[in-house]
TrEMBL record:
Record key words, sorted: Oxidoreductase
Protein name: Aldehyde dehydrogenase
InterPro entries documented for this protein: Ald_DH/histidinol_DH (IPR016161), Ald_DH_C (IPR016163), Ald_DH_N (IPR016162), Aldehyde_DH_dom (IPR015590)
Assigned protein family: Belongs to the aldehyde dehydrogenase family.
GO molecular function per UniProt: oxidoreductase activity, acting on the aldehyde or oxo group of donors, NAD or NADP as acceptor
PANTHER family recorded: ALDEHYDE DEHYDROGENASE-RELATED
Organism: Streptomyces variegatus
């Protein structure tokens, strides 16, 4: 795969002003392909193209917009094997993950938003007494969802299919146009998505894709005066910088940022279920997911057993070539990120944590691998317990009673997804409601794909997924008339 990728601007494929750079397979350290480096002028041209296309696209009947999304879903599904192979090479995800959780979820999201939902709803009539504003009367009202306008979608490297699809599909369904700025590590998959949308009949300018390693690419896509909203998935630090720019121009924001999820495991929990859920999730995609339960809070009665079982579970996870069918843990995205994850494991040792499993570099001589690490005897003031590592590392902390467990779980800057395991369902739900997190899994790490997704505190602003994404990518207009 050595082709030199073009930019997608205004319905045309354009050579990048800044040339190309190599995209590296994190499993082999070999080149996957050549990604385009857009100039600031090309980014602004993409934003201008989206602005020009917004009027006609927003007036296109919702059924016609939905038909484009349905055709795109069909094209992605038909090319699943090809697209998954590229996603695996760009990200280091296992073949199963690339097919099901990356490309498969992307197709499902396009299908989901190909379903037309009502964009208006009635509000109960109001009876007004006579006064300075006029005679007595009845006022009817209607709330109408209107598109926001041009949306810049800045997407994350951990899932170059599902993450952009989760932004593009609901934004287009609502009548917005988009400029997509993919993560620099794995942008080629997003260009394949643009090809699928082009083949599905999306009009010129409705979808634009511009990439680059320079921070100026993202900055131009956010700051352009043609942009009305920014949808960002990534680190809290970058999200804060984007929010500052959006605040100056009062641009709408949807921010899905970092996480340091707590898994609160009580003495009466099904320990096997808790260990399997935690072990599967914190090692999934090499721990590069914001929803991972990377702080495990274990009640003292089961603390030792949980540490022992979680260490054993982690040790059984095969680390290696993501193309092999029995591989569970592939590489992290880059050498720099591997070094960062390893530095946190060493920091944990210095802080007094005990590494009871993993943390070493596995045998493959090439590739950016880290064996899933379990750090026991942690306290909540340790950096490994407070900062997002974004790798296959979990910190285990003990607690005595429910009050302490809740207090520890909430003692964090983040609040994306937490988890509770308890055999007492009433207690599990009681604790879930006390956790300051956008989502809580009760005895499960599963996700309901219609449930709202987003975070409290520094984990983000706003909610998407399901119908909530249609709200996120729309403004609500009130229309009032005399009855």
């Amino acid at each position: 795969m050595t082709a030199r990728q073009a930019l997608f601007v205004g319905g045309s494929w354009a050579e990048p002003d800044g040339g190309h750079y190599e995209v590296i397979d994190p499993a082999t350290e070999e080149a996957v392909g050549w990604a385009p480096e857009a100039s600031r002028d090309q980014v602004l041209a993409a934003c201008a193209a989206a602005r020009e296309a917004f009027g006609p696209w927003s007036r296109t009947p919702p059924e016609e917009r939905a038909a484009v999304l349905a055709r795109a879903a069909g094209i992605i599904t038909a090319r699943l094997k090809e697209y998954a192979s590229l996603a695996r090479a760009e990200t280091g995800a296992t073949t199963g993950t690339a097919r099901a959780m990356q490309v498969g979820v992307a197709a499902a999201r396009f299908r989901r938003y190909a379903r037309v939902e009502p964009a208006e709803w009635a509000i109960p009539p109001q009876i007004n007494e006579a006064g300075p504003m006029g005679r007595a009367g009845v006022l009817g009202a209607l709330a109408v969802r209107q598109p926001v306008g041009v949306v810049t979608c800045v997407t994350s490297y951990n899932n170059p299919w599902a993450n952009p699809a989760g932004k593009i599909a609901p934004a287009l369904a609502m009548g917005n146009t988009v400029v997509v700025k993919p993560a620099p590590q794995d942008p080629l998959s997003v260009y394949r998505m643009a090809e699928a949308l082009e083949a599905a009949g999306v009009p010129p300018g409705v979808v634009n894709v511009v990439s680059g390693r320079s921070t100026g690419v993202g900055e131009a896509a956010v700051a352009s005066p043609d942009v009305d909203m920014v949808s960002f998935t990534g680190s809290t630090a970058v999200g804060q910088r984007i929010a500052e720019v959006c605040g100056r121009d009062m641009k709408r924001q949807l921010m899905e940022l970092g996480g340091k999820g707590a898994a609160v495991v009580f003495d009466d929990a099904d320990l096997g279920s808790a260990v399997a859920g935690i072990g599967t999730t914190f090692s999934f995609y090499s721990g590069q997911i914001c929803t991972a339960p990377t702080r495990v809070l274990a009640q003292r009665g089961i603390y030792d057993r949980l540490v022992e079982q979680l260490a054993a579970y982690s040790g059984r996870l095969k680390v290696g070539d993501p193309r092999e069918p029995d591989t569970v843990v592939g590489p992290v995205i880059s050498a720099a990120h591997r070094d960062r994850v390893e530095s946190y494991i060493e920091l944990g040792r210095k802080e007094g944590a005990v590494v009871v499993a993993g943390g070493e570099r596995p045998d493959p001589p090439r590739g950016f691998y880290v064996a899933p690490a379990v750090l026991a005897d942690c306290t909540n003031d340790m950096r490994v317990a407070r900062e997002e590592i974004f790798g296959p590392v979990v910190a285990v902390l003990p607690f005595d009673d429910e009050e302490e467990g809740v207090a520890l779980a909430n003692d964090t800057d983040y609040g994306l997804i937490d988890y509770v395991w308890s055999g007492n369902v009433a207690r599990a739900f009681r604790v879930a409601r006390r956790l300051r997190a956008g989502g809580v899994g009760v005895n499960t790490v599963g996700r309901n794909m219609e449930a709202p997704f987003g975070g409290f505190k520094r984990s983000g602003v706003g909610r998407d997924v399901g119908s909530y994404a249609l709200h996120a990518y729309s403004e609500v207009q009130a229309i009032v008339w005399p009855g």
